[in-house]
Design a protein that fits this description.
about 325 residues, alpha/beta, Rossmann fold, Zinc Finger, Delta Prime, domain 3, 5-stranded parallel beta sheet, 5 strands, binds zinc ion
Length: about 325
């Protein structure tokens, strides 16, 4: 098994088999929520393709010229487009560099690979520029687009890529893997966190962050302000130490869970602690399904705004969302 993580074995085997038959497409869109290792998958796969030992299992040998170039970050046939410092979008100049990269002949094996991550941060101009490659890909080109929010990408990009969906793995697979990673560390908070947010890599990252139990806190705050009373600014301040994207993801997941409870079931991957489940149940009992969905829309719109523009203040976005939560609660309870 040579996929970077055990739960990626199936899509890995599929792509490696295609590569062996020389039947790879020119562009793949790797989709799935944060914390599943999509980018690691893309990078590993690219390195395997550029390995001069041509490994049957897709796993780069680590010792050949191609692998050594990759290890030093200097392989001339692999290009990574990602967010530059202080930027929230992948900009058109970066995509132009990628176009130029693809017009030059490959240095070694003949294949040239571009990885765009996170592809959903491309603005319209960048996405349009990228279409040039997707519409007429050079014979040697392979493009791997990695996106947690594929809906933010234009339909023209979707229609020119083969889509690979990364699903949240079964509970026991995640639990086993996480336990092995933690080795001697205390596993209890990790498993609690895993029940809350689900994606294994996300849990590992959260354990080292200031707020490992963020989803607990968000659900508790939603629940605490069910009557619409409270000061939005104060609630927002309580989350001042949290990076805004992570906050929005967690808020979305929490409200989604409430909506799912309202509709009668929690998805089996999401195992909430008893306390959070009780609070969510109360939220979903008291709210109309439509109100939850309309709040979800607002969260989604806020995140799109944060992703697309660089001048947005995270604290303000968080405060506005609390304001609108309280407002909809007041409407809900208006006599
Ligand atoms: Zn190699």
């Amino acid at each position: 098994m040579s996929a970077p993580y055990p739960w990626l074995a199936a899509p890995w085997a599929e792509l490696v088999a295609r590569a062996a038959r020389d039947a790879l497409g020119h562009a793949y869109l790797l989709c799935g929520r944060e914390g599943l290792g999509k980018f690691a998958f893309a990078e590993h796969f690219a390195r395997g393709l550029l390995c001069e030992q041509r490994p049957a299992d897709g796993q780069a040998c680590g010792a050949c010229r191609g692998c050594l170039l990759n290890a030093s970050g200097n392989h001339p046939d692999l290009k990574l487009l990602t967010l530059e410092e202080e930027r929230k979008s992948i900009v058109i100049d970066q995509v132009r560099d990628l176009i130029e990269f693809f017009t030059l002949k490959a240095h070694y094996h003949g294949r040239k690979i571009g990885i765009v991550y996170p592809a959903d941060t491309m603005n319209n101009a960048s996405a349009n520029a990228l279409l040039k490659i997707l519409e007429e890909p050079p014979a040697s080109a392979l493009l791997l687009l990695v996106a947690s929010r594929p809906a933010l990408l234009p339909a023209t990009i979707h229609s020119r890529c083969q889509r690979i969906n990364f699903e949240l793995p079964a509970w026991d697979v995640r639990e086993r893997w996480l336990s092995a990673q933690l080795a001697t560390r205390d596993k209890a908070p990790a498993l609690e966190s895993l029940t809350l947010c689900g994606a294994p890599l996300e849990v590992l990252a959260q354990l080292d962050s200031a707020r490992p139990q963020l989803m607990n806190d968000v659900i508790a705050a939603l629940h605490q302000h069910l009557t619409g009373r409270g000061n939005p600014l104060e609630v927002a301040r309580g989350f001042a130490d949290v990076e805004v994207r992570r906050y929005l993801d967690t808020l979305e997941l929490s409200v989604q869970a409430a909506a799912q409870l309202r509709a009668g079931h929690l998805p089996p991957q999401l195992r909430l602690s008893a306390n959070s489940q009780r609070q969510l149940q109360e939220i979903s009992d008291k709210l109309h399904f439509d109100s939850l969905l309309s709040y979800l829309d607002q969260v989604g719109a806020s995140r799109a705004m944060v992703l697309r523009s660089s001048g947005v203040r995270g604290a303000e976005v968080i405060e506005n969302l609390w304001q609108s939560w309280m407002k909809s609660m007041q409407l809900e309870y208006a006599p």
